[in-house]
Amino acid sequence: MIINRDDIEQMEQRYRGLFINSVLGAKPALLVGTNSINGDSNLAVMSSAFHVGANPPLVGLIIRPSESPRHTLNNILATGYYTLNHVSPQYIEAAHQTSARYPADQCEFEAVGLSKKYLHDFSAPFVEQSTIALGLKLREEHRLAINNTHMIIGEIQLIELPAKVLGDDGFVDIAANDSIAATGLDSYVRIQALRRLSYAKLGQWPKAIE
Amino acid sequence: MIINRDDIEQMEQRYRGLFINSVLGAKPALLVGTNSINGDSNLAVMSSAFHVGANPPLVGLIIRPSESPRHTLNNILATGYYTLNHVSPQYIEAAHQTSARYPADQCEFEAVGLSKKYLHDFSAPFVEQSTIALGLKLREEHRLAINNTHMIIGEIQLIELPAKVLGDDGFVDIAANDSIAATGLDSYVRIQALRRLSYAKLGQWPKAIE
């Protein structure tokens, strides 16, 4: 079936939200950990992180204006530091529950039963239960005039991961790590390795990397 | 294990590329279809698309400067139209092979054995084999000064999808559609539904949506 711009325009708001959020494809499901300048910790599940570059190592994050009261965005802008924590199938309900509208002084970590930890002298909180986690420093913030969302670009400062999922060539096997993905506003999926393929060159067909 | 900013800095370039590209999480694997103003069709696999908003329906795309000769970027900027086509497990080799450096006048569709089709009066080419595909119109282009990448924001004009994967509430079940994801520069994965969860509210735990 074909859905055009007018059809999308006429969709009921919640229907359109589910539809557009799920039609693009799989997205990383990540818990964003921050502290306010008063030291209140905040945790929020997001699926809008994207790769911007490897050198320097940069990650983008879209934060919607409707996510009032926007504790995560305010904390990132105020402190300059945040963490991105992978989610495992065992605690997707807890991760999802962080999107409920807790007041600023209520800690989502405690409310949903996840534990907070700190690594080295990094100032933002990590999720103890996450097996892969990244610590980021804010580098750029853009307001996208087109729909009033915020785009945050952060530089990776610190990564914690199990040694066994890091290959000799630098590849991190997040399928073996059982990191989950999101495919919409409320849908969580497991990922299952198909294969890795050799670097694409003219005149030869990609081969599976064993 | 913990990897810090200095460790990343000292990684060999290709190792770092694989590492940073695979550590964030699953990304949508999409074939980007464009035409040049001369009518030459181009097709390139990318995993840097991300959701920007549902109303208006917006999708972002990061295009790296190193992807010379950048046919896709040039075509999008010149014509204003492009398509994003889901990939199925049956043709991941063909999709991956589009990243080889074909000259501008060689059509990747033919070179890799995928078929081109047009929908309604939409000017950019779709992939016949793709079961879900989006037609986009360029709305904004940003050059990210931080690493010289381009960010394209497009508005969805047209979506083709099988009626059976569209739920009554607007949810598109891309796991049931067998749309694949990418987890790095060369790694393709299947996605497998875990569960959908009810809207998160204070004082109640999320329930599985049947």
UniProtKB/TrEMBL annotation, chains A, B:
<keyword id="KW-0560">Oxidoreductase</keyword>
<dbReference type="GO" id="GO:0016491">
    <property type="term" value="F:oxidoreductase activity"/>
</dbReference>
<protein>
    <submittedName>
        <fullName>Flavin reductase family protein</fullName>
        <ecNumber>1.5.1.-</ecNumber>
    </submittedName>
</protein>
<dbReference type="InterPro" id="IPR012349">
    <property type="entry name" value="Split_barrel_FMN-bd"/>
</dbReference>
<feature type="domain" description="Flavin reductase like">
    <location>
        <begin position="24"/>
        <end position="173"/>
    </location>
</feature>
<keyword id="KW-0285">Flavoprotein</keyword>
<dbReference type="Pfam" id="PF01613">
    <property type="entry name" value="Flavin_Reduct"/>
</dbReference>
<keyword id="KW-0288">FMN</keyword>
<comment type="similarity">
    <text>Belongs to the flavoredoxin family.</text>
</comment>
<dbReference type="InterPro" id="IPR002563">
    <property type="entry name" value="Flavin_Rdtase-like_dom"/>
</dbReference>
